[in-house]
Specification:
Helicase, Ruva Protein, domain 3, 11 helices, 18% strand, alpha/beta, two-stranded antiparallel ribbon, Rossmann fold, elongated, single chain
Length: 293
């Protein structure tokens, strides 16, 4: 007996129903992403080719991907990619998944360096490298040094820099915050940017299972009030920033006001920026001018 022919339409409809029963909050989006990954078709092409039969190889790849998603693996880890601004970032289990709100953090950086011909930027806790790579991609004169304590993140960021063709201007190094940066760069950075761990430790058990079970804990845990890493960055950035250099961080919306007050003790022009959902998410401020002799 001949095996049933499955079309794009058949695969989508079956998967939407199946993942819906598996408590996927967005089963159609998941089905589209997974089928795109299995076939190489864009999400628009899926609907333009609704009656296209799947090849046996495509069906096998799709079956594997759907199975991983049904087990709770984040969609981005299943497909291995996450759209971010004008790029698609490679992600894998153990590397923090870029969030849409972080795109606003990149906006803040680009605004500050827009009139600087060859800006120098430090991206701490780089993760996938989404901030570092996007800054270099969108400002052709920028040089970015990116750091992370996780070697998997360092490798992922390097791959993303290569894929975006900015590896010559994005240096990704392994280490804690500023520690791996060359000493001769002290006092020269136009921007220090970071999306650090900022979830209060006590809140970690309340995170969704697909976050808590798959994403790296060290990229989430920000200490008792979520501001442990922020405080270190705010203090240490003073020695690494050039005069009028900017420090910009993404934080828990519940802690932004407190963080702004902390920055206000050492930085000028402290501002808060809302994310795409209208929540206060980004805090930033400028280092003072150099002392005159």
């Amino acid at each position: 007996m001949a095996e049933r022919v499955w079309t794009v339409k058949d695969a989508l409809e079956w998967t939407v129903e199946f993942l819906g029963r598996k408590a996927d909050e967005h089963p159609r989006r998941s089905a589209e992403w997974l089928l795109s990954a299995a076939t190489g078709l864009s999400r628009v092409e899926l609907y333009a080719l609704y009656d296209r039969p799947l090849t046996p190889d495509e069906r096998e790849r799709y079956r594997t991907l759907v199975g991983k998603r049904a087990e709770g693996m984040p969609l981005q880890y299943v497909t291995g990619e996450m759209p971010f601004r004008h790029l698609v970032m490679h992600v894998e289990p153990g590397v923090f998944i870029p969030r849409p709100e972080t795109e606003v953090l990149v906006d803040v950086v680009l605004e500050h360096i827009s009139d600087i011909t060859a800006p120098l930027v430090a991206d701490l806790c780089t993760g996938s490298g989404c901030v570092a790579v996007s800054v270099a991609h969108e400002h052709p004169g920028a040089t970015v040094w990116a750091t992370d304590v996780d070697e998997r993140a360092v490798e992922a960021a390097r791959r993303n820099a290569l894929h975006a063709k900015v590896a010559d201007r994005v240096q990704v190094v392994h280490g804690d915050l500023f520690d791996p940066l060359p000493a001769h760069l002290r006092g020269r950075f136009d921007v220090v940017v970071s999306n650090p761990p900022y979830i209060p430790s006590a809140d970690l058990p309340d995170l969704p299972p697909e976050v808590l079970g798959f994403e790296p804990g060290e990229a989430l845990d920000g200490g008792s009030d979520g501001l442990d890493v922020f405080r270190r960055i705010a203090q240490e950035s003073q020695g690494w920033l050039a005069p009028r250099g900017l420090v910009a961080l993404e934080l828990d919306s519940r802690r932004v006001a407190e963080a702004a007050a902390v920055l206000g003790t050492s930085y000028s022009c402290v501002m808060v920026r809302k994310d795409l959902t209208g929540r206060e998410r980004i805090v930033y401020g400028q280092k003072g001018e150099a002392m005159q002799p």
